[in-house]
Design goal:
- The protein has 197 residues and is mainly beta.
- The protein has 2 domains: 62 residues, Beta Barrel (OB fold (Dihydrolipoamide Acetyltransferase, E2P)), CATH 2.40.50; 112 residues, OB fold (Dihydrolipoamide Acetyltransferase, E2P), CATH 2.40.50.
- Helices cover 3% and strands 46% of the residues.
- The strands form 4 sheets. The protein has a 5-stranded mixed barrel. The chain has a 4-stranded mixed β-sheet with strand order 1-6-7-3, with no helix packed on it.
- A hairpin with a 4-residue loop joins β14 and β15.
- The protein is elongated, with a radius of gyration of 19 Å.
């Protein structure tokens, strides 16, 4: 393993062009032909035959930031007709020490019938969602998408404060009152099935 101690990087910093010689490793991501850092730390190049795997190792692992393509867990904080805002709490399995701001626009809620989407029938404040990070268009806010079956609301509470149960792709039900509420429900695949695939 080769350390390039002179290269200290910050999250989002462009490191190398990607291609046959350079591939992204842990702590990095690839976008538009370049390898970028997810972390603040030291660049390491792991040589394997003719391929360099570019990695970033952090002194503090918690400087990880969301990168395009990451699946994140967030909590909805505000809903209006055009978008909803949320705070990003986790990236994959990693719980963040500080939350990041995310925005989910109406056109990124689902992949079909985008013109018929009503934000109030998809999300409510306090909902916990799974979403994919889109390429950044504005600083300090991550644009999110739930336009995949596996993404959307995973935890929601009814007006009674009870955890609701998904009954379809568009509805969740309170087990106490049996009242149904509209949501963009995530299709959760059990882990044992994922392992079999």
């Amino acid at each position: 393993m080769t350390d390039i101690e002179c290269i200290i990087c910050v999250p989002g910093q462009r490191l190398f062009s990607s291609g046959k010689e350079n591939i992204p490793g842990s702590g990095t991501y690839e976008q538009l032909g370049y390898i970028y850092s997810k972390l603040a730390g030291f660049v390491k190049i792991v040589k394997d035959k003719n391929i360099n795997r570019i990695e970033v190792h952090s002194v503090m692992e918690q400087s990880i930031v969301p990168a395009p393509g990451d699946i994140v867990t967030g909590m909805i904080t505000l809903v209006n007709q055009r978008f909803c805002k949320c705070t990003i709490k986790c990236i994959g399995d990693i719980v963040l020490t500080r939350p990041y701001r995310g925005i989910l626009r109406r056109e990124d809620v689902r992949s079909t019938e985008k013109d018929k989407i009503e934000m109030y029938k998809s999300f409510r404040s306090g909902d916990i969602i799974l979403a994919r990070v889109l390429p950044m268009t504005e600083a300090h806010t991550y644009q999110l998408s739930t336009a995949e079956n596996e993404l959307g609301v995973v935890i929601a509470h009814s007006e009674e404060g009870t955890s609701m149960i998904p009954v379809s792709w568009t509805e969740m039900q309170c087990p106490r009152t049996l009242a149904k509420e509209f949501r963009k429900v995530a299709k959760i695949v059990p882990e044992e099935l994922v392992n079999e695939l």
